[in-house]
Amino acid sequence: MVEQGVDEDIEYDAYDAVAVHVLALREDGVPLGTGRLLSGEAAASKTGGDLSVGSLGRLAVSRAARGHGVGAALVRAIEDAARARRLASVDLHAQTHALGFYERLGYTAYGPEFPDAGIPHRAMRRAL
């Protein structure tokens, strides 16, 4: 939130209580990154109402951990959680500068660019 200037008031929502949260830790317990998966009704507003689609969000990796596979590992952990919930695919809203990262992980962009928290985004999806 601090790095990107996102207001704390819009970062937290009622879905945090029902989301699957993933956390990557260094061996000494220092957090390296995090993300979350929404499913069911919590994801429906983000996935066009399709209950078979999960919503990956809030992916963040500390600056020092970037480029070391932490983000990819977090995405794969979220996909594993989606599979465990028998979801058919995972959607996400990627900041446009991160499209290549998600494309390398098998996600495909669809629809027009849109602003979220003042940052340009595109919707993306990957079938599981």
UniProtKB/TrEMBL annotation:
Alphabetical list of PANTHER family matching this protein: ACETYLTRANSFERASE, AMINOALKYLPHOSPHONATE N-ACETYLTRANSFERASE-RELATED-RELATED
Pfam families in the cross-refs: Acetyltransf_10
Stated name of the protein: GNAT family N-acetyltransferase
Lineage, broadest ranks: Bacteria, Bacillati, Actinomycetota, Actinomycetes, Kitasatosporales
Limits of the N-acetyltransferase domain: 1-128
Domain of life: Bacteria
SUPFAM superfamilies named among the record's database cross-references: Acyl-CoA N-acyltransferases (Nat)
Alphabetized Gene3D superfamilies for the sequence: 3.40.630.30
Alphabetical UniProt keywords: Acyltransferase, Transferase
